[in-house]
Design a protein that fits this description.
Low-confidence stretches: none
Order of helices and strands: EHEEEEEHEEEHHEEEEHEHEHEHEHEHEE
CATH architecture of the largest domain: 3-Layer(aba) Sandwich
Radius of gyration: 22 Å
Number of domains: 3
Oligomer: single chain
Largest sheet: 7 strands, mixed
Mean pLDDT: 96
Shape: globular
CATH topology of the largest domain: Rossmann fold
Length: about 400
């Protein structure tokens, strides 16, 4: 197959050689006659071959590298889906709900595939993967044999590629909700309308970790569907699961009933306000878990996000009993791990608490992070122990 050439600037060449998969429009020197979504051959300013990439004629990320060798196998898509499956069988054998393709982390930029039992959810987030949707679906059917595949092509990032929002079945049948097991707990997942693709699969390993530390009275803030709260319930005396969404609270209640869990109480409340009220009333907990939504979705929001993270963690440390653990997360890419650690240190100082760091964790291993590509490292999780 002949691939049209795209010439990048010296800075673009340096970026490719450093291992970063994204080349921005400002570093593309020439792309004569290249159609939207094409696979192109990438050349440096002197004609040096740099590999192959997906091309976009709309996005600021104009090239997404898929291969840095001088040849590209025509079966690369199929081959990488096979490799992605093999890796998941290594790190998560028997898992019912997990990510089986994580974009750049699996050498398939802008492609996301999640598995929920016998069903798959696919997201084609660029012109290139969207244009190959039929090929991708056919390969997924061959490799994974699902009962159904749903496309959840409703993320806003598709608009940057000039692509419409689409949600619908592309193979077989997909029910409104499916029930899957995660760490021995059954969860109802709304594949059609739920956040992300139904569950927060990137927290699967952290949910299991939290169970190791939980004890006594547990507060689970920003619970969504009870991922942390229901998982730790077996080790807790009582779990108070809190979310500002009435739908989330109802979902936690259904999931608790599904598992016969009776020591979890779901409450609809603003977590910021509740933490302040709990502290004011002198209520105390043996374990506190915080898993808020992204407070900083852009660089301009970082300072406000820092204040938000400090506030919730300061209040959490105040209501945490000495000897107890705080499991606290951030999915804001723009707030890096070192930033979050500094925020937590400031919160501890203001709370008058002596705190030790027990663990620093990341997103689950089925959401791979590329070394040297900070954009792929977004989820941070600290386990802190309050000494006094």
């Amino acid at each position: 197959m002949t691939h049209l050439p795209v010439i990048v600037s010296k800075r673009g060449e340096s970026r490719v050689r450093s291992g970063h998969p994204w080349i921005f429009r400002s570093d593309v020197a020439r792309a004569p006659g290249v159609p939207a979504g094409a696979v192109v051959r990438v050349l440096g300013p002197t004609g040096r071959p740099l590999g192959f990439a997906f091309f976009s004629d709309r996005s600021e990320i104009q090239l997404r590298m898929i291969e840095r060798a001088e040849t590209l196998a025509p079966t690369f898509l199929h081959d990488r889906l096979l490799a992605a499956r093999a890796w998941r069988e290594t790190i998560a054998p028997g898992a019912e709900a997990l990510r089986i393709v994580h974009g750049e982390g699996d050498g398939l930029p802008s492609l996301v595939v999640d598995r929920y039992g016998e069903h798959l959810v696919v997201q084609t987030l660029s012109q290139a993967t969207d244009g190959r949707k039929a090929e991708i679906v056919a390969a997924l059917v061959e490799i994974f044999r699902p009962r159904g595949i749903l496309e959840r092509n409703d993320p806003r990032v598709r608009a940057l590629e000039g692509l419409p929002s689409q949600v619908g079945v592309v193979h077989g049948e997909v029910p409104e909700t499916v029930t899957v097991s995660e760490n021995g707990v059954r969860f109802e997942a709304d594949l059609w309308r739920g956040q992300k693709t139904g569950l927060f699969l990137d927290q699967r390993e952290n949910h299991a970790m939290a169970r190791e530390y939980a004890r006594g009275r547990v507060l689970d803030g920003f619970t969504y569907n009870g991922g942390f709260g229901l998982t730790v319930a077996a080790k807790a005396g009582e779990v108070v699961a809190v979310d500002a969404s009435a739908d989330a609270v109802a979902r936690v209640q259904r999931n608790a009933a599904l598992n016969g869990i009776t020591n979890v109480t779901a409450r609809e409340a603003n977590v910021f306000d509740l933490l302040h009220d709990l502290d004011g009333r002198g209520e105390r907990f043996d374990t506190v878990i915080l898993d808020p939504p992204a407070f900083a979705k852009s660089k301009s929001a970082v300072e406000k996000a820092r204040r938000g993270y400090k506030e919730i963690n300061l209040r959490a440390l105040k209501i945490l009993l000495p000897g107890g653990c705080l499991v606290t997360c951030s999915c804001s890419y723009h707030v890096h791990e070192a930033d979050l650690e500094g925020i937590l240190a400031d919160a501890a100082a203001d709370a008058g608490a002596t705190v030790s760091v027990i663990e620093k964790r990341r997103q689950a291993r089925d959401h791979p992070i590329l070394l040297g590509v900070p954009e792929t490292y977004y989820l941070k999780c600290f386990v802190l122990r309050k000494l006094a």
